[in-house]
Amino acid sequence: MMVVMEFAEVIFRRRTVRVFKPLKLTDEQVFRLLEAACYAPAGGNNANWEVIVVRDDETKRKLVKASLNQEFIGDAGAVFVFFNGKPSNVSAAIQNLLLMAHSMGLEGCWVGSFNGIKVKRILKMPVDSTVNAIVAVGVPAEDARDPGKRFPEEVVHLEEYGNRMVGVDLLNKILNQMEKKVGDFKELLRVTIEKYGLESYPVYRLEEKYAAFVFTPLLRRLAKVLRELGYRSLAERIEENVREYAKGRWRRITESNDINSGNVISWERKYSQIIYPMLIKSILEELRSRLS
After folding, report:
1. Can you give the pLDDT at residue 144?
2. Taking 80 as the threshold, does the pLDDT of residue 167 lie above it?
3. Between the CA of residue 283 and those of 49, 135, 267, 286, what are the distances in Å?
4. Rounded to an integer, what distance in angstroms lies between the CA atom of residue 108 and that of residue 139?
5. In the chain, what are the domains?
6. What is the C-alpha separation between 255 and 253, in angstroms, rounded?
């Protein structure tokens, strides 16, 4: 039975999930998702992308190895490998698929880190084909919260370039968002440790998510707004911390070719639990003192 949601709710409540229940998607679910992808807009109505749907456990395990050992790909109810076509058309199709998944009580993860040559070999694809993305979809097994998306004021230029809406009100909105995300992480970490233990897969996925995909983007956004408002030295301090994290993370991933290696796990833990929360706390105190 399909779940029906209001369209705005689907957009605003969709989440990326990397922990799935061990349940395969049915044929009905798969083709409903594909139908949504096929109805995505495409320039000139000329969508030339195709997709390989993988539900076989052994094939999924092979795809995990070709994707920096991102284990959730193997746990997903179905894996959609999009290939060929224009990137813009593929992106629209994937968004439709993920929105439909959420409306059906499912969630997914759009994977961009993989070895395309290995993926093509695993799936027996033509050598001249182009793998655009891997999308893992399944029944969520984690409490996926809003990671903190950009506000309209951050992105808009009214009528012409440079006519911005960046001001103190926007800065305060971002600061409040950052404070809430730190609180969310602490609460989720406590609950997840109590349920699974500190040295568990769900805890690591949570630490990775908040270090890489919540705190890092938030800090980058804040630094950009601070630069626009003239807080250059504080912006540079934030940017240096983010660069150090990103360089260290990527070096550890490439050295091991395994996103779950001990060195990567310890790096994500250090930044999610210690360095980033301390940095955010000091920024909040400094800026609120200046703005009061």
Report:
1. 86
2. yes
3. 45, 36, 22, 5
4. 8
5. 7-138 (3.40.109.10), 152-291 (no CATH)
6. 6
